[in-house]
Amino acid sequence: MARVYADVNALLGPAWYDYESMKIEWNVPDRYEIIQRIGGGKYSDVFEGVDSSNEDAVVIKVLKPVAKRKIKREIKVLRNLSGGPNIVGLVDVVRDHVSRSHSLVMEYVNSSDWRDIYRSLTELEIKQYVFQILRALEFAHSRGIMHRDVKPGNIVFDREQRKLRLIDWGLAEFYHPDTEYPSHVGSRHYKSPELLVAYRTYDYSLDLWSVGCVLAALVFRKEAFFRGRDNEDQLIKIVKILGSDSFENYLYNYNICLVNASDDLLHPYDKQSWARFVASDNRTTATPEAIDLVDKLLRFDHRERLTAAEAMAHTYFNVVRLQTPSNPAECFSDSGFYST
């Protein structure tokens, strides 16, 4: 059972979380014009567009043929989280009757490319960046929702405006205690250990592992901190740093049995000191406070990881909290999280 917000959905009731019985009223897409493709993946193609009714820039996420329940789930999640801090806004849902395609129209953020920023963000910018991700997750978790695919590709960040949004809630799910969820979610370099060992009774804490991976990449100036070739190699790379003892304790405590484990995975590895990753190019960002936060997020045992709220209270973010407006509503403004 999750350490926090375990009973949120039970308290809010089926009207909050039962997306399968939700009826969606689809609008026509006539008012939206596609300008250019900006991305996409297994489940959708994503375009920059414009709303001709007001000339606002929008993002149009054209969904590929998927189960209706998955489409309903994403829309339900986005509507439930509407107005939350640093969570992308859903503008409209449209269906084209000719192509029979369904699209989600989202708020547009002029995003910096991860490859351009992971080596160049200053220490303060890293703190602001990660704090805003944590704010989004704390809000979502408090509403009973796991994101399940936190990664740089799902974080849009306007560096000039210091405006961040957590996007792509297509894999998000409502958390219910003692429920088994599929382990084939998330993206390899940010997958938590529970996903890699197919432990299916997971909770919000898998999102905090992903945040730890993002933070480690930023403070140590790596495009991806754990960079496995496949899921097993990803797990091996984690074990080589966190150590075999912690891994074995984790498997024992949760009665997890590995099937067809390779010799490399079963090989004994000593726990590595985070200090060994400090180098001349990251000394200003890989501070003792940053390393302590990384260490408290990247734990095999999901119950030992900090929650989003606990991470936000870490001393690493002291300067950021001082800049936070006293009125929470000010944090949600379209002009960004911080005023200049």
Automatic annotation (TrEMBL):
Coiled coil: none annotated. InterPro entries: CK2_alpha, Kinase-like_dom_sf, Prot_kinase_dom, Protein_kinase_ATP_BS, Ser/Thr_kinase_AS. Its EC number is 2.7.11.1. Its main location: nucleus. ATP binds at residue 61. GO terms for biological process: regulation of cell cycle; regulation of transcription by RNA polymerase II. Residues 32-317 form the Protein kinase domain. Pfam families: Pkinase. Keywords: ATP-binding, Kinase, Nucleotide-binding, Nucleus, Serine/threonine-protein kinase, Transferase. It comes from the Eukaryota. GO terms for cellular component: cytosol; nucleolus; protein kinase CK2 complex. It is found in: Nucleus. It catalyses: L-threonyl-[protein] + ATP = O-phospho-L-threonyl-[protein] + ADP + H(+); L-seryl-[protein] + ATP = O-phospho-L-seryl-[protein] + ADP + H(+). GO terms for molecular function: ATP binding; protein serine kinase activity; protein serine/threonine kinase activity. Heterotetramer. Catalytic subunit of a constitutively active serine/threonine-protein kinase complex that phosphorylates a large number of substrates containing acidic residues C-terminal to the phosphorylated serine or threonine. Belongs to the protein kinase superfamily. Ser/Thr protein kinase family. CK2 subfamily. This is Casein kinase II subunit alpha.
